[in-house]
Amino acid sequence: MTGTSDFVESVAASLALVRQRRPRVHCLMNTVVQKFVADGLAALGAIPSMTSALEEVEAFAQRADALVVNLGTLDEERRRAIRLAAAVARDADKPWIVDPVHCDYSPSRLVFARELIAAGPSVVRGNASEMDIVGNANGALRIKTGAVDELTLDLHTIRVENGHPLMAQVTGTGCLSGALIAAFMAVEPDRLKAATGALLTSGIAAEIAGERSSGPGTFEALFRDALAALRPEDIIVNARISHAES
Ligand SMILES: Nc1ncnc2c1ncn2[C@@H]1O[C@H](COP(=O)(O)OP(=O)(O)O)[C@@H](O)[C@H]1O
Ligand SMILES: Cc1ncsc1CCOP(=O)(O)O
Ligand SMILES: [Mg+2]
């Protein structure tokens, strides 16, 4: 990796690429946050699709530029849809991300998360409890989000400090971060750079929204506005990241 400021500049350029190329992101998303995630992707400039219908999911995954697999509100039919879409992404070498939502609550969900990770996703993203239990990332970029996001790939660890505490009071900010990472991976082949770009975009937009809002309700709307308005130069000026090599 080159110096941090060169890295941030190139990450900021990936935001411009998302806006220009408008990647299609197929989301196998829990039923609680589907609208929040679709709206967040649209605000960024990406094009979301959301179906989990067994007869359609392969065609949608085939036509998408990236896939996000989120394990919330999991049932047998959703598992089958996820297996079908993940196989398409893997066979077509498309970027895909696994978000092992609440795998720390349910042994069977944990087994399924590990099955998917064994299939070789580009990224695994979860909160601290999920990432601490899920185990080996099988070569995927490991992302543990929280007050500080920690991204680990091979010997590199990047910490993204941007964000706002109100994010933890809006259901779906973690789910949306996975979808934004997928959108950035669709335009930036270096997944560490892509994921850093997505988390900086979301964290800086949240800081702007947090300053203007009076609580979680107004924050949610202002966060979407800030995502839509964020410019690459806002990333360059406001990024707070560090890099360590072990
Ligand atoms: N206290 C906090 N301060 C700043 N950002 C936060 C805080 N808590 C969570 N975030 C951000 O909110 C998003 C969701 O993170 P997290 O709460 O870890 O995921 P989940 O919603 O899956 O539990 C991430 O983008 C993370 O950076
Ligand atoms: C993302 C999210 N956050 C709070 S509930 C929810 C949906 C998760 O579904 P499940 O309760 O099946 O884990
Ligand atoms: Mg949370």
From TrEMBL:
<dbReference type="GO" id="GO:0005524">
    <property type="term" value="F:ATP binding"/>
</dbReference>
<dbReference type="GO" id="GO:0004417">
    <property type="term" value="F:hydroxyethylthiazole kinase activity"/>
</dbReference>
<keyword id="KW-0067">ATP-binding</keyword>
<keyword id="KW-0460">Magnesium</keyword>
<dbReference type="GO" id="GO:0000287">
    <property type="term" value="F:magnesium ion binding"/>
</dbReference>
<keyword id="KW-0547">Nucleotide-binding</keyword>
<dbReference type="Pfam" id="PF02110">
    <property type="entry name" value="HK"/>
</dbReference>
<keyword id="KW-0784">Thiamine biosynthesis</keyword>
<keyword id="KW-0418">Kinase</keyword>
<dbReference type="InterPro" id="IPR029056">
    <property type="entry name" value="Ribokinase-like"/>
</dbReference>
<dbReference type="GO" id="GO:0009228">
    <property type="term" value="P:thiamine biosynthetic process"/>
</dbReference>
<comment type="pathway">
    <text>Cofactor biosynthesis; thiamine diphosphate biosynthesis; 4-methyl-5-(2-phosphoethyl)-thiazole from 5-(2-hydroxyethyl)-4-methylthiazole: step 1/1.</text>
</comment>
<keyword id="KW-0808">Transferase</keyword>
<protein>
    <recommendedName>
        <fullName>hydroxyethylthiazole kinase</fullName>
        <ecNumber>2.7.1.50</ecNumber>
    </recommendedName>
</protein>
<keyword id="KW-0479">Metal-binding</keyword>
<dbReference type="InterPro" id="IPR000417">
    <property type="entry name" value="Hyethyz_kinase"/>
</dbReference>
